[in-house]
Amino acid sequence: MTFAVEIMSTTLFNMILHLTSVLFSPIRTALTVWAALSLSTGFAIAQTPVINTNTPTTPASDTLRLTLAQADEQFKAHNLTVLATQLGISENQAYEIQSQLRINPAIYVETMPYNQQTKEVLPFRQSNAQQVVQVQQLIRLAGKRNKQLAIARTSTELATDRFYDLLRTLTYQLHTTFYDLYYARQTLTVYNQEITTLQQTVALYQQQFDKGNVPLKDLTRLKAYLFSLTTERQQLLRRLIDDQADLVVLLNTSPSTAIQPVVAPEAINRFTVNSLTINNLFQLAEQHRFDLKGYRDQAKQEQQNLTLQKAMAVPDLTLQGTYDRNGSYISNYFGVGVGISLPVLNKNQGNIQAAKIRIQSSQQLLSAYNLQVDSDVERAYTKALQTEQLYQTFDQRFNDDFGRLIDGVTTNYKKQNIDVVEFLDFFDSYKSSQLQFAQLQNDRMHSLEEVSFAVGTNPFQN
């Protein structure tokens, strides 16, 4: 990159020195007037772009300035999807409570609806009437209650895994959108500066063309380039609006509020992927990837289900107490009974076999997803290293040098040493360099966020 800049700079100044000895056509006067007007209006594109504090259609009072840390806090506190998913944990905790409850006893009461001898309805008080009362209690054997409780607790762990995995995914979306919007605003500033300058230039050239002082081809070039810039700026505004809308949803703010990301310059270079090792990233992913933990918990729950299904093969015990008035060989009969089903035909064989198959399936899925996680970490780390290498080889003084070069070009243009076509070439080169550098910075931050997304946590703070 530095080598290319040196070649370009050498070629440029040689060209300028060559053109200083050339006398221009009759457009000399118009070019001099245009150059003077450009300088008097403050041709400021040589400076590093500053974030525009407002979107074109939003007043300053509706602008919300946020750092990334502040955006994270508001996201966790107000994002509706996060809050709704978090309630799923409480829901499964309620199911845990339910699984601990014992089976209610059952009561059975029988009496005569009508005594034909005494002609009375519901003869409860007569000594010669019959009433039967039975009380039953089911006793679950083989620890079924504790095994169902274990499954319920694992379900709560799965709900927790889903919550933190959602948090990881939405945090990645928040951070990448945050940087997209930040660098889009910087890029928009470049377009605004260039378009403002070109609009003034086109207006002046139109006046000179009407007087016959400049050729139509030069005016057409200026108008065509201005149209190209305006079109590119419009496309950028569409992306900016999309990013703004995404942040509004993620942060749960008013759609009429313009969100302005704030990034300190030192925050850009605070972290580097070169400080990480791939083995350390694998270990972090093993601990913090909650989607992977979800697969482990699912396999654990399938094993618990097999244990429960084997316990279900053991029949439950029923205890019964009976009171019978005048229905037995003696009056006021009290009896105690025990009941149990005989596991002769149904030993829960099908459910046990299905549980074993589900265990095998869950283990296969866990192994496959473990490989997927390692692949995600490897891919993110490699891409981040490549982006970091490109970023480090980029001479960050390039934009300042290019800015001073533009000043020199403007000065020579004022002296009529270069024509409008050559000036527009430098004009376009400056725009491209600013946009490419902003995109490189954005790509670098995206690659760092992708590493954090792949391992499930911020590895630069561990």
UniProtKB/TrEMBL annotation:
Pfam families: OEP. GO terms for molecular function: efflux transmembrane transporter activity. It comes from the Bacteria. Belongs to the outer membrane factor (OMF) (TC 1.B.17) family. This is TolC family protein. It comes from Spirosoma endbachense.
